[in-house]
């Protein structure tokens, strides 16, 4: 027996099948985020048992991930170490877009600007004329503290605070240079997961930057040289763009997992509650940050691969 189906019925069946498939894919996506959140909550609890305070933010920026967001762990702020430099870089590029600065402009590095920690500029003869582009690149890629401090003088604290206010960043504050004493207390640096995800989202969405400036920031972040945190938790070859920070009791990483057309913003902040010895903290806490990145990758890669 042979049955024939009217063309309109075929179209109706095809539409129904597409709707069922879309609903199934959407449900799988939601489930993946929910399962990921539970796994991250378990990791936060495990870290707490090891006297590590942990905060995690994840936000879908495009494709099947867009609009999804998860925050897990401590809501309190952290000493940001070098992750606060992303507010400086974002403000710099906002000024470049406004035409008040150019990456080809130069700043003079004097002996009084030289500070320790990571960096190249501190080892070069002074006075030293350096382009703002090179200062920014070194600030992000190798966390050059002297380059950062020179850029702070160029960009200005008021401009950084104005951008934080514009983006409604309620906690994030760049109040002092690298290695500068936080006196009075208002001259301190603060960061948390919620504000960091908001900043990363706004950079990615071109809400206050041109596409060219957004691409430049992500290019610098893609050249990050520290690979002990997010980079250690995802498979080799996974495209990422990130900015690390570590100092005394803290070790952090923030940035993007760059699945093509399914990009995700990630912020991971961790602080030892029992030690402020740099080497001890890095050895104990970096693997925790890497494990968090691995959890995020494991659960969301399933969605992207479908």
How would you characterize the overall build of this protein?
By secondary structure, the protein is α+β, with helices and mostly antiparallel strands. Helix content is 47%, strand content 15%. The chain has nine helices and seven strands; from the N terminus they run H-E-E-H-E-E-H-H-H-H-H-H-E-E-E-H. The strands form two sheets. The chain has a five-stranded antiparallel beta sheet, with helices on both faces. Strands 3-4 form a two-stranded antiparallel sheet. A hairpin with an 8-residue loop joins strand 1 (52-60) and strand 2 (69-73). It is globular and about 55 Å long. The two termini are 38 Å apart.
Indicate the topology.
Layout: H1 7-49, E1 52-60, E2 69-73, H2 85-98, E3 106-109, E4 128-131, H3 132-141, H4 145-155, H5 157-166, H6 193-204, H7 211-222, H8 230-233, E5 240-247, E6 250-257, E7 264-272, H9 278-305
Antiparallel strand pairs: 1-2, 1-7, 3-4, 5-6, 6-7
Helix pairs in contact: 1-9, 2-4, 2-5, 3-4
Shape: globular
In the sheet with the most strands, the strands line up as 2-1-7-6-5
Helix percentage range: 40-55%
Report the order of strands and helices: HEEHEEHHHHHHEEEH
Question: How many strand units?
Answer: 7
Biggest sheet details: 5 strands, antiparallel
Kindly name the structural category: alpha+beta
Distance N to C terminus: 38 Å
Strand content: 15-25%
Radius of gyration: 22 Å
Number of helices: 9
Average pLDDT for all residues:
91
Low-confidence stretches: 1-5, 12-27
